[in-house]
Write a structure and sequence with these properties.
Aminopeptidase, alpha+beta, 3 strands, 3-stranded antiparallel beta sheet
Length: 83
């Protein structure tokens, strides 16, 4: 991938999440299965780095404005959150 063509964007439906592989199965699985849901729930913002001619996903990161201990939340709220 040519670094000069790398762009960082908010995760959107046009990004190919299925082909992303970083070597860490839990991170691959998060992007494929959970990231869009967390964005929809507004618990995080997910950004992807894309680049090259194919615009493949080179990496991603998430930002959250808060942290909490899941076991301190009401069960009905906690069951809807990841992990």
């Amino acid at each position: 991938m040519d670094e000069s063509t790398v762009a960082v964007e908010l995760l959107g439906p046009h990004h190919d999440r299925e082909s992303f592989r970083c070597g860490e199965p839990a991170l691959d699985r998060y992007l494929r299965q959970q990231a869009a849901q967390d964005t929809w729930r507004r618990t995080v913002q997910v950004f992807v780095a894309t680049g090259g001619v194919s615009r493949e996903t080179a990496g991603y990161y998430t930002l959250s404005a808060a942290s909490f201990e899941k076991d301190r939340l009401p069960a009905e709220v906690a069951r809807r959150l990841p992990h």
